[in-house]
Amino acid sequence: MTLTLIFVILIACPLEFTGAKWTYNGPDGEHNWSSNYPFCGGAFQSPIDFQTQLLRYDPNLPPIQVQNYNLSTNEQLTLSNNGHSVQLSLPSHMYISSFPQRYSAAQLHFHWGSSNLLTGSEHTVNGKRFAGEMHIVHFNSDKYPNISMAVDKHDGLAVLGVFIEIGEFNPAFDKFFKYMNGIKYRDQKIQVAAFNIHALLPARLDEYYRYDGSLTTPPCYPSVLWTVFRRPVTISRKQFMALATALYASNAQESTTVPLHGNYRKPQIADNRVVLVSFKDGDFTWMSWGILATITVASVLGLLLIITLVWCLWRKGSNTEEQKEKTNGYKLAEKEENISKV
Ligand SMILES: *[C@@H]1O[C@H](CO)[C@@H](O)[C@H](O)[C@H]1NC(C)=O
Ligand SMILES: *[C@@H]1O[C@H](CO)[C@@H](O)[C@H](O)[C@H]1NC(C)=O
Ligand SMILES: *[C@@H]1O[C@H](CO)[C@@H](O)[C@H](O)[C@H]1NC(C)=O
């Protein structure tokens, strides 16, 4: 009887419950995730640093196309604090249409820095970390009935990653950032009116990094086809501060409050992976300037060399002429002398 009960509890409990708790700091921090979540210590992990030497330009990568992202304000979305991030639920009629299979939306969430360390993106570009990063999570709905069934399959998920930079105020982000005080504590949820999710994306959907990776949080399944847009979106400093200071990783009943910030995982090893890019390398403009400068300097040097050579030859030529004249003159004088002798 007791055994049956234990068995039922073990089977019925969701992964979050049977799985150990995890954090970004302390003994349950990312260095130790793999002791309870073996995939976190495995292959194809995310995020990674997009280093120039990993990038391969692929002219066949099409611009990202999404459908039904402009949601009606009649729809309700669930905004929640899950203790690791702030998450907005998304309806599955939103989807990515530019992949061979349909990937339907499930949720979006964020990773960010803290109020004194403004950088907290997960992916980095040649070591540069942005202020934050948004992940719009989609699952392969052609193959799997829901995200729970897709989450651990190699072709299960597709995530759109968006870098966030501090700059201009972003009205689209304010559609839900303004409700942040309603979900200060872990496990709090509120309903918010839907809006145009497309407005959260950067303007250029044709420039992105593409690679095979994983969930960036436990259980770290290597199930994600990553698309990280090259161009960041901006939010104002005030908006960033609201995100970085409003939330707690602890629930309302806990006596000690734990702030929720700095919730990003460190870059993972690339192994044998390459990152395909849909655009010419970021250093390309810099490089073409370098090449241009080199060509200019080389041309000027070459021209100088030619001028010098021509000048030398001319000098040499006129010298021999002079010498010839001199010799001739001398010979002539000699001849005249000889003649006069005769
Ligand atoms: C890692 O996690 C395991 C299991 O939760 C725990 O026993 C161990 O003490 C942790 N190790 C470190 C270095 O914190
Ligand atoms: C989004 O849909 C609303 C109507 O629901 C419309 O008024 C608005 O112009 C649309 N926005 C864009 C960018 O298409
Ligand atoms: C997902 O689909 C599976 C298989 O159809 C089903 O058993 C499960 O209850 C579904 N899960 C959710 C969360 O809807």
From TrEMBL:
MF GO annotations: carbonate dehydratase activity; zinc ion binding
Matches recorded under InterPro entries: CA_dom (IPR001148), CA_dom_sf (IPR036398), Carbonic_anhydrase_a-class (IPR023561), Carbonic_anhydrase_a-class_CS (IPR018338)
Domain of life: Eukaryota
Enzymatic reactions: hydrogencarbonate + H(+) = CO2 + H2O
Protein EC: 4.2.1.1
Reported function: Reversible hydration of carbon dioxide.
Protein name: Carbonic anhydrase
Origin species: Carassius auratus
Gene expressing this chain: LOC113043396
